[in-house]
Specification:
With about 475 residues, this protein is of the alpha/beta class. It is built from 16 helices and 14 strands. The two termini are about 25 Å apart. The structure holds adenosine monophosphate.
Length: about 475
């Protein structure tokens, strides 16, 4: 038996069966470290990002410990909330809840998710029927507590997931209120991508003698990502994105911005300029956000403009390119942002547009990455010297010509786009297909399709191969 085999854990049969059905062969590092600690009833302070398998790392041992309460009674009183999992965004809550459901599917333990932007009524009905595991965003949970739909006096386990994000969003007062409703005698698990002083303070107030587990270093970037920093004044940034997308033949990309307002505005401008663009930010309704994501996953849009908060932890892992339209306020977000590309050995491109006012943010980034960052000048297309083309430019020009020949439908990326008079080649209508990967980590392979689509997110007709979560 390998050291990281799930069978080493002696999980109860219904849980072991669920894990086997998920196709997981071995534990991920966070699972290997956290599961035994949670099974032993200790508090945990875990530094792990989404994508590391952290949901199973806390869900499986929690479910195992809750099995002693399992019962088939239909009485709500027999199904009080025993475990509470708090997350900063609706999408994350939804993702985690789906996973919990899958792990618990052969047990009589019930789970539910509540988050804002959706009708309270169905959530209320589910809560009133009784659930052992409640996944929630803080604001909506407080609404349900106030409406007396959720009673938390029998909670034994609390998970504060993506805790740094919750603090960034300003959820600290909500968290403090929620935690005040819970029994003092409980197990608390806190997961965060970083251990900032605020997180440490939160942990020291609410965790008891926690075991610290760290599986990923937040200040490293994958070597497979080609990183460029271009000096571009704010007014020219959109033009820079258009040019790079066109020159590099980029099929899909994330474009990160620092503010919600900037996010909506940029998406609208890029869309007007002919790039198929959608935006993801906290001011959109739940329905709009799910639609935006869905369209991107299906390959119907090329650019997804997002804030860090909105994009954090989403199950969209491998885009060909990431643009940092704004240099991130938190240097660590740079690592999260560009971690969306170049995964598992595939090559990726990360372009950061640096304006003259970004000096301090760039200094922070250099400190985090522990290297000097070279900022390049951008060579604008229309400043091409006539009659002399260097190799790089020739390659781009040749690529342009090849596209002209095959009448590639993405010609709307061009400023001088011709009307699409020629018949379209269906091949180029396909969503992006990532290159075959030889180096996918074993634990990332064989994920069942069932983990990809939420019950709350309408089933997709066709999901781009890019987003198979491998
Ligand atoms: P998470 O970090 O919890 O969001 O998990 C990221 C993805 O990894 C999810 O799609 C999980 O289904 C998957 N996953 C979690 N644990 C394992 C494992 N041991 N082997 C393979 N895939 C896993």
């Amino acid at each position: 038996m390998s050291d990281s085999a799930f069978s080493k854990l002696s999980l109860a049969e219904p849980l072991a069966r669920a894990v086997a059905e998920m196709g997981y062969e071995s534990m991920t590092p966070i699972q290997e470290q956290a599961i035994p600690v949670v099974l032993a009833g200790r508090d945990v302070m875990g530094a792990a990002q989404t994508g590391t398998g952290k949901t199973a790392a806390f869900s499986l041992p929690l479910l195992q410990r809750l099995l002693k309460h399992e019962n088939a009674s239909t009485s709500p009183a027999r199904h009080p909330v025993r475990a509470l999992v708090l997350l900063p965004t609706r999408e994350l809550a939804d993702q985690v809840a789906q996973q919990v459901k899958l792990y618990a599917k052969h047990t009589n333990l019930r789970s539910a998710v509540v988050f804002g932007g959706m009708d309270m009524k169905p959530q209320t009905a589910e809560l009133k029927r009784g659930v052992e595991v409640l996944v929630a965003t803080p604001g909506r949970l407080l609404d349900h507590i106030e409406a007396k739909n959720a009673v938390l006096n029998q909670v034994e386990y609390v998970v504060l997931d993506e805790a740094d994000r919750m603090l960034d969003i300003g959820f600290l007062p909500d968290l403090q209120r929620i935690l005040s409703y819970l029994p003092k005698q409980r197990t608390t698990l806190l997961f965060s991508a970083t251990f900032s002083p605020e997180i440490k303070r939160l942990a020291s107030s609410y965790l008891q003698d926690p075991v610290t587990i760290e599986v990923s270093r937040p200040n490293t970037t994958a070597s497979t990502v080609e990183q460029h920093f271009y000096s571009v004044p704010d007014d020219d940034k959109r033009r820079a994105v258009r040019q790079i997308v066109r020159q590099r033949g980029i099929t899909q990309a994330f474009v990160f911005v620092n503010s919600k307002l900037g996010c909506a505005r940029l998406a609208r401008s890029l869309e007007r300029e002919g790039l198929k663009t959608t935006a993801l930010h906290g001011d959109k309704s739940q329905d709009e956000r799910l639609k935006a994501l869905d369209a991107f996953k299906k390959g119907e849009v090329d650019l997804l403009v997002a804030t860090d908060v909105a994009a954090r932890g989403l199950d969209i892992k491998d885009v060909p390119a990431v643009f940092n339209f704004d240099v991130p306020f938190n240097a660590e977000d740079y690592v999260h942002r560009i971690g969306r590309t170049g995964r598992a050995g595939a090559s990726g491109l990360a372009v950061t547009l640096v304006s003259p006012s970004d000096t301090r943010l760039m200094a922070d980034l250099e400190k985090l990455l522990k290297r000097k960052i070279e900022i390049e000048a951008i060579e604008w297309d229309d400043e091409r010297p006539r009659g002399r083309i260097n190799d790089g430019r020739r390659a781009w020009r040749e690529e342009d010509e090849r596209r002209d020949e095959r009448r590639e439908p993405r010609q709307d990326f061009r400023r001088d786009a011709r009307p699409p008079s020629a018949p379209k080649d269906p091949f180029f209508e396909q969503p992006y297909e990532p290159p075959a990967r030889e180096e996918a980590p074993a634990w990332e392979a064989n994920k069942p399709a069932s983990t990809r689509v939420s019950a709350n997110i309408k089933p997709k007709r066709k999901v781009a191969a890019l987003f198979k979560s491998e």
